[in-house]
Amino acid sequence: MKGIILLVLGIGLLHTASAATHSLKYFYTAVSGDIDFPEFTAVGLVDKGQFMYFDSNTKTAVPKTEWMKREGADYWDRETQIAIGVHQTFKVDIQTLKDRFNQSKSTGVHVFQNMYGCEWDDEAGATEGFYQFGYDGEDFIAFDLKTTKWIAPTPQAVITKQKWDSDTADNKYRKNYCTQECIDWLKKYVDYGKSTLMRTVRPSVSLLQKAPSSPVTCHATGFYPSDVMVSWQKDGQDHHEDVEYGETLPNDDGTFQKSSHLTVTPEDRKKNKYQCVVQVKGIKEDFIKVLPDPDAANVVPIIVGVVALLLVIVAVVVGVVIWRKRSKKGFVPASTSDTDSDNSGRAVPQI
């Protein structure tokens, strides 16, 4: 598995709390091979926070937030049946993909994933949708909303593109879902969880270092919302040289974490003042940690393996992996009626 879910939105005025871009995203992930991970997982996220989960071991869709528990048994039964149906499709699809990529005899781990959903700016009213597939860490095929055609970035996806392009009725329905149905669901969920989704939580910020010659990590955790900037300053000026920016990752309590790594010599630390600055959207205060003299003993040492462990925890909690590229094209339909038994809108077409 080449990565975990990397959900990063652009950050504008972080201290502005009035307007927000809300998102509804689903991730379907199938894996094959010898790996201690469910064969299939389905995860739903609102504003990057998990609100539902299903895997092929439990075979039951469950709410992951208190505010989603207001949906009744019919809703969760329907989500369960949708996920079970997609699981069966993905079992066939992942074998088809292995054949197309000449991997039919491969004993390694292979990953097939579908990400779909929509975004809504609650101030400007702008919307966006996306529907895409990835295989073994790379883009496989994606839906273009403007042309209602499929984009095949790899030769192995051309057969699928031709098959799906021919179903014009289904493609029109997917576009309708993206611009209307998905947005309706998103607004409903945001209303359900507004007391949680609109809150702000201050971060806890720490400076971490494994050894005096190792990079210094500025780690911010426990903050909400997820829009955050973790940056470095040198002598009061923004500093980007020898800086590596991490991704925003979810914590299991609904908050988020993010790190930024600075490579600096002990000599340079003695001659200059370095500090980490953390800004969270909706919180006016900047959270600053000054990097002390290297001879000081108040930089918390990193326990070997902590970073790797965090990645494993996130992968288990979120239940998905995602390909590296982050194009936003396409979506998949969902039923708009709480009582509608027709789940075809959320079904994934066979490749």
UniProtKB/TrEMBL annotation:
Keywords: Glycoprotein, Membrane, Signal, Transmembrane, Transmembrane helix. Residues 1-19 form the signal peptide. Residues 248-267, 331-351 are annotated as: Disordered. CDD domains: IgC1_MHC_I_alpha3. It holds the Pfam family C1-set. SUPFAM superfamilies: Immunoglobulin, MHC antigen-recognition domain. Residues 254-263, 334-344 have a biased composition (Polar residues). InterPro entries: Ig-like_dom, Ig-like_dom_sf, Ig-like_fold, Ig_C1-set, MHC_class-I_related, MHC_I-like_Ag-recog, MHC_I-like_Ag-recog_sf, MHC_I/II-like_Ag-recog. One of its GO terms (biological process) is immune response. The chain crosses the membrane at residues 299-323. Residues 203-279 form the Ig-like domain. Belongs to the MHC class I family. This is MHC class I alpha chain. It comes from Oncorhynchus mykiss. The gene is oncmyk-UBA.
